[in-house]
UniProtKB/TrEMBL annotation:
Family label: Belongs to the LDH2/MDH2 oxidoreductase family.
Protein name, entry field: Malate dehydrogenase
Taxonomy, superkingdom: Bacteria
Segments crossing the lipid bilayer: none
A Pfam short name: Ldh_2
Keyword Oxidoreductase attached: yes
GO molecular function: oxidoreductase activity
InterPro entries: Mal/L-sulf/L-lact_DH-like_ah, Mal/L-sulf/L-lact_DH-like_NADP, Mal/L-sulfo/L-lacto_DH-like_sf, Malate/L-lactate_DH-like
Keywords from the UniProt entry: Oxidoreductase
């Protein structure tokens, strides 16, 4: 059961929560904007329902309040940043801002990050570049959840990647985990006491499991019990090895390039700090940027106008997010009762007033 709340009030509430840890006002504002933007885009798995996770990590010392991300290697078109285990959103914003600055100066900017934390919605950072009329890419590794094809235990993370590019009527935005779904999706089903509708994850004997609460417990266990399937599913018949390969590519772009921690070594106390990858590319490198943007817009519109299945609509990546943004700005963001209870309990402990936001 969910109820709608004005996003501006929720954003202010989230800001005050992070100020209570204490993060600076500027940092708290940036974190809150990122988290609530995710809910506005309809990606509830990475929005306010993640506050309890961030709280656990802050209290455990996995997220270091006040840590300053540091550029440790740099060229005119690239950089490596050590996040020093700071808040992932803050590290990611700094990294993409640097990538955009380099792209403005040299045409392309690539920034690799190590020792960071969960940064929320990958597409948020890719869109930072597309808002500047650039092509943006954002990717991250994570705790090990993905079971490689024919393996019996996880090694790679859900390893999402996002790609954004200017287009009309709104930017193209591809943002997806390389597992069938993200862990956050399973958490939402567990909170709502719903069964998993598809073949998303397996138990310790590699059997498909549809019990969301059991899966959530198993994936939180150290060591993990079972794991999540790659895009394409179990085995090779439906191309699961391709999803496994995509996850491996993200692992190379993130942990290998940054010389950070592998997904396989996270989540069991052996290592802390995940890795990210960011790129910004100026379209003028390839010619008239307006013509390139127009060509993309025209291609996407041709796809939208293809004959659809009966009763179905063809969506381009970014369409659903744009629709959700328009609707939720007007009608508020939905928050389920369990998440709301987590937020109020967290606020009570941190002595953050919240009644005015409900």
């Amino acid at each position: 059961m969910s109820k709608r709340y004005d996003y501006r009030g929720i954003q202010q509430w989230v800001k005050r929560i992070f100020e209570a840890y204490p993060f600076s006002e500027q940092s708290s504002t940036a974190i809150a904007q990122s988290i609530v933007a995710t809910d506005l885009f309809g990606i509830e798995s990475h929005g306010v329902q993640r506050l309890a996770m961030y709280d656990r990590k802050i209290r455990a010392g996995d997220i270091r309040v006040g840590a300053a991300a540091e550029v440790i290697r740099e060229s005119p078109v690239s950089a490596v940043i050590d996040g020093h285990e700071g808040m992932g959103q803050l590290v990611a914003i700094k990294a993409m801002e640097l990538a955009i600055k380099k792209a403005e100066q040299s045409g392309i900017g690539i920034v690799s990050v190590r020792h960071s934390n969960h940064y929320g919605m990958a597409g948020y950072y890719a869109k930072m570049a597309s808002k500047k009329k650039m092509l943006g890419i954002s990717a991250t590794n994570s705790n090990p959840f993905l079971i490689p094809t024919h393996a019996m235990r996880p090694f790679l993370g859900s390893n999402p990647i996002a790609f954004a590019m200017p287009a009309a009527p709104h930017d193209f935005l591809y943002d997806a985990a390389t597992t069938v779904v993200s862990l956050g999706k399973i958490e939402i089903y567990a909170k709502q006491k719903k069964s998993i509708p598809g073949a998303w994850a397996v138990d310790n004997k590699n059997r498909i499991s549809r019990d969301a609460r059991t899966l959530q417990r198993n994936l939180s266990h150290v060591p993990k019990i079972g794991g999540m399937l790659p895009v394409g599913g179990q085995g090779e018949d439906n191309g699961g090895y391709k999803g496994f390969g995509n996850a491996l590519l993200v692992e190379i772009l993130t942990s290998i390039l940054s010389q950070g921690n592998l997904s396989a070594d996270l989540g069991d106390g052996r290592a802390k700090g995940i890795s990210h990858f960011f790129a910004a590319i100026d379209l003028h490198l390839f010619g008239d940027a307006n013509k390139i943007t127009d060509a993309l817009s025209q291609m996407l519109e041709r796809i939208r106008r293809l004959p659809p299945e009966p009763g179905k609509k063809i969506y381009i990546h970014g369409d659903k997010e744009a629709d959700a943004l328009e609707e939720r700005v007007k009608n508020g963001i939905p928050i389920d009762l369990k998440t709301l209870n987590e937020m109020t309990a967290l606020s009570d402990r941190l002595q953050v007033p919240y009644q005015q936001y409900l």
